[in-house]
Structure prediction request, 372 residues.
Amino acid sequence: MSKSFISFGLLCGLLMPPLALAQNPAPTSPAPQSSLTVTVVSPQSISLAQKINANGNLAAWQEAVIGAEANGLKITEVRVNVGDRVQRGDVLAVLQSDTLRAELAQAEAALAEATASAQEAKAQSDRARSLQQQGFFSNAQLSQTLAADASAQARVQSARAMVQLQNVRLSQTQVRAPDAGVISARQATVGSVVGAGTELFRLIRQGRTEWRAEVTAAEIGRIQVGAPVQIKAASGQQLQGKVRMVAPSVDAQTRNAIVYVDLPAATGSARPGMYAQGEIALGHSQALTVPQTAVVVRDGFSYVYTVGADQKVSQLKVQTGRQSGDRIEVTRGLKADARVVASGGAFLNHGDTVRVVDAPTSLAAPAAPASK
Prediction:
């Protein structure tokens, strides 16, 4: 009897688990829960400044080459150095003038001699006219006297021209500045003998500097003469300028054109030859913008996250453009009526379910930012 009882107990034990499972069915999976609370904003259309970013070098507006006009003279004095500011007509260097002064004195003596001879010839011609009227001089003799008088007068003019020439040569012993400006280079050395045309100095005319910006051929037509330009030199100095001229041709090698930008005469630490970056203003235009915190950069691409009616997040690839304050322009990939996640996109993935709260006033309706 004990064996039957044990067998019945084992049988009941084997049957009990299925019955228990039937009485306690498996629980159903819970409804998906939102993973993050986000704030959504609508893209805003605001007026942004249009600019062209460009690179280039600072250069002298015009650089005058100052050379020697006299030939074979020795430099006896140099009065300026590189960096000195000079005015028009200032003496920069002095050449030896002893020989030219002697030649001038000789020319003046020749002029005096020619003048005396001319006076004598004039007196002879006057007497000849008087005697010819009285019948003592023939017409041939009178013609000879008048010719001698004319020749004497011509010799006076020639001697006077020689004196003027020697004065000009003497004045060339003083090398003068052709314009006001800054001395940018000096080759003149005391004691050296220079020839005509030898370069002695270089002068930045009026101390003016310009920025020569390189722009692409597609951007030339958008740039207007007189447009304001903001420049940052390699020294860190900020400069304000205006477009003076756009080059009439494009470089055949680089396909770039040069834009010439006038800068103030006193440029501080900025110097010709420095590299500089700048922005050329083109005016203003309307732009669709979102907060900069709404844009997420992944793998070199920009994305924004939008929230649909089902509270699910969609990842959109966009192209960005200009920035102003805390807002950034979206040029492609976003509709104007989209609901954009204002911040925290780096913690979201495509298809996540979120809980949406109202946006602060500063994000929902931003004031139009001042253009840079």
Remarks:
- The longest strand covers residues 44-60.
- The domain at 66-96+173-206 is CATH 2.40.50.100 (OB fold (Dihydrolipoamide Acetyltransferase, E2P)).
- Residues 1-29, 367-372 have pLDDT under 50 and may be disordered.
